[in-house]
Design goal:
heterodimer; A: about 220 residues; alpha/beta; Rossmann fold; six-stranded mixed beta sheet; 7 helices; B: about 180 residues; mainly beta; 13-stranded parallel beta sheet
């Protein structure tokens, strides 16, 4: 199987010296979590990858460049179409409705996913939906599969979801995708609690306040 | 006055140098290379107000600006779904370019382009999928890998020494019981 490198933002985005120093420059940052994910792709067999941040060319090239299949969707748009504004405002909906939402969003069999790119999308769902999503993802992920999530700083009550593009050498270009939406705050403890059923949660400290978390099933 | 001007025209025409005789282009009796019609001919069009229910197949490019409820099979050609175009069904083509809406799985032997503001719900299989920003996509993407043609194998090196033929002893006659 072809396990090549892929993904680029175009020559203008890179300094000739590689990705060193690529931080906060037009949303470009070095991501240690992405480096780990790339290693996971390199060393493992071809796998099914789920991207909940919508499809873009860079992530497509990054994932399929390793011979993987990519299922992509913008879960925030699906969520907004599925739940009424009142349900979203109240932050709750019937359990059956949440279940139906998950069935629609995640058409996979148990253990089918080798990796999941959640980015910052958990913060744009109401807590019950986010918790149900994480529980379902755990069931759908294969043992040893990885999940990459980002969390905005706690003090932000609303922000625009990030359009994240994976590039070479563990670089991520994260740019806000307006409009801004209400965002659920998550501190480190809440993140640990959310992923308590997983075998490992790794936090990566970054210079900006965006928290990177890599979770192993 | 009219006569005079006509006479002047006639003299001018007489003075004008004769047009050089063009050499006839020799025509060959051999068949010439045919230009691929699909690349030069305009695509067939399903217009904005047209609704088609049923499958569509063929050997020419197709532009869908209307609504098509059924499968599309154009294995050697290009399908373009215009901004007002809407297809509900499976698509198989050489190239697929989408500006409008597609609900169904797609397979292209070459490329699929999902342009800005297009909406696609379905799985996609292509050699070169191209997704523009602000396109909506929900589904699986699989890249078809085309292995580059292998270089021809080098000829086997000549044997160092001629191989002696192996002479087998004649098989013993089987005894009849």
């Amino acid at each position: 199987m072809n396990k090549g490198r892929a993904g680029a933002f175009g020559p203008a985005a890179y300094s000739p010296g590689g990705s060193a120093g690529l931080h906060d420059q037009d949303g470009l940052r070095r991501s240690h979590a992405l480096v780990s994910l790339a290693k996971h792709f390199e060393t493992g067999p071809a796998m099914q990858v789920l991207d909940l941040g919508g499809l873009n060319q860079q992530n497509l090239d990054f994932v399929t460049g390793y011979g993987n299949r990519l299922y992509a969707q913008e879960i925030v748009l699906g969520y907004e179409a599925f739940f009424t504004p009142e349900e979203r405002l109240r932050g709750e909906a019937a359990a059956e409705k949440i279940e139906a939402f998950l069935r629609e969003c995640l058409p996979f069999s148990n253990g089918a996913l080798g990796a999941v790119l959640v980015w910052d999308r958990l913060q744009f769902l109401f807590p019950a939906a986010a918790a149900a999503l994480v529980t379902r993802l755990k069931r759908l992920m294969a043992p040893g599969a990885l999940l990459l999530a980002l969390f905005h700083p706690e003090h932000l009550s609303s922000t625009a979801p990030l359009a994240c593009r994976a590039g070479p050498d563990g670089a991520i270009k994260a740019t806000p995708k307006p409009p801004a939406r209400p965002a659920e705050p998550f501190n480190a403890r809440a993140i640990e609690k959310l992923f308590s059923g997983f075998s490992g949660v790794k936090f990566y400290m970054t210079r900006d306040s965006l928290q990177e978390v890599l979770i192993r099933r | 006055m009219w006569n005079r001007s006509r006479r002047e025209e006639e003299t001018q025409a007489r003075q004008a140098p004769p047009e050089p005789v063009k050499e006839a282009i020799p025509t060959s009796s051999y068949p010439t290379r045919r230009v691929d019609e699909a690349t030069t001919r305009a695509a067939a069009v399903i217009g904005k107000t047209i609704l088609v229910k049923g499958s569509v197949s063929g050997k020419e490019d197709l532009l869908v600006d209307g609504r098509l409820e059924g499968d599309v099979d154009l294995p050697e050609n290009r399908l373009t779904v215009g901004q007002g175009g809407h297809i509900e069904g499976k698509i198989r083509a050489r190239e697929i370019v989408i500006y409008g809406v597609v609900q169904g799985n797609m397979e292209a032997s070459e490329r699929v382009e999902i342009r800005k503001n297009a909406k696609v719900i379905g799985d996609l299989k292509a050699c070169r999928p191209v997704i523009e920003d602000e396109a909506y996509f929900k589904g699986n993407v699989e890249t078809i890998r085309v292995d580059p043609p292998k270089p021809p194998r080098p000829a086997a090196p000549p044997a160092a020494a001629p191989v002696e033929p192996i002479i087998l002893p004649p098989a013993p006659e089987s005894r009849k019981g």
